[in-house]
Specification:
A hairpin with a 2-residue loop joins strand 3 and strand 4. The protein is α/β, with parallel strands linked by helices and about 260 residues long. The protein has one domain.
């Protein structure tokens, strides 16, 4: 894709509405940190990226820990997911004039995935200034689809504006602990002959691994990494600036930010 932030958003929306199956996977700064094989810790009171410590934190649902010496299988799975190429398998991996933390990783990513601009777009496609569009266009479309949720075990489905036909749950540090879902979801798809469903993933970096494995297994469904976009509806934390700006009416710049 890579026609533009809004154009790519509406391209995926058109595919979703028409029933044309696709996968959208997001490789942002957390994923690229793991792919660089650097330590990553998201805790309540701090964030560590490589050797750099930040004095802010995230709610329990966003906690994660990647230790290179212990969790090399996660890095291998993410790299495999990023390199994977198939028709309608889109990766959000930074834009041409990227100002996000991921900008320094774009040369590494381009080397891993050469010559496929058609399937390359922004990891922020459903958030920031596109978030109101997501709520106003994607979410009503979900109401017309058979939706499968992959989300935190602490999330409540009661306030969702659509009713999932099935949900799979992840626990703490799911990027390390919940890889069993790969086989579990594949078995469910095979056993129930699942087709024309929309799978929505809110499972940190595990989302990318699952989307790759499942789209390769069955491309007769759609798989979308929705990140934290439905955290408000799931009664989970809304610490992300774009969520606080939208739901709490705080004038934070992320809600007005486009990718180029």
């Amino acid at each position: 894709m890579s026609r533009g932030f809004k154009e790519d958003f509406f391209h995926l929306l058109k595919m979703l509405k028409s029933g044309e199956h696709f996968a959208f996977s997001r490789f942002s700064d957390g994923e690229t940190c793991v792919m660089r094989n650097e330590k990553l810790v998201l805790a309540s009171d701090h964030v560590q990226v490589g050797e750099t410590m930040h004095e802010f934190g995230y709610s329990a649902d966003d906690h994660k820990e990647f230790i290179p010496e212990k969790h090399g299988f996660v890095r291998e799975a993410l790299i495999e997911a990023f390199k994977y190429q198939k028709e309608n398998y889109f990766v959000g991996a930074g834009c041409g004039n990227c100002t996000c933390h991921i900008k320094d990783d774009i040369p590494m990513l381009e080397e891993m995935r050469p010559g496929d601009d058609v399937h390359w777009t922004s990891p922020n496609l459903l958030v920031n200034s596109n978030y109101p569009l997501f709520l106003n266009h994607f979410v009503p479309t979900f109401k017309q689809k058979k939706v499968v949720m992959i989300c935190s075990k602490d999330g409540s489905l009661e306030k969702l504006p659509f009713e999932p036909v099935k949900d799979f749950r992840v626990g703490k540090n799911c990027i390390v602990n919940d890889h069993h879902l790969i086989d579990e979801i594949k078995e469910w798809i095979k056993e129930k002959d699942v087709k024309d469903h929309v799978f929505l993933f809110s499972a940190s970096s595990l989302s990318e691994i699952l989307i790759h494995q499942l789209f390769d297994f069955s491309s007769q469904n759609t798989y979308i990494d929705i990140g934290t976009t439905l955290h408000y509806h799931l009664d989970l934390g809304i610490e992300r600036d774009y969520l606080r700006a939208y739901w709490n009416g705080i004038p934070l710049p992320d809600l007005y930010k486009d990718c180029n």
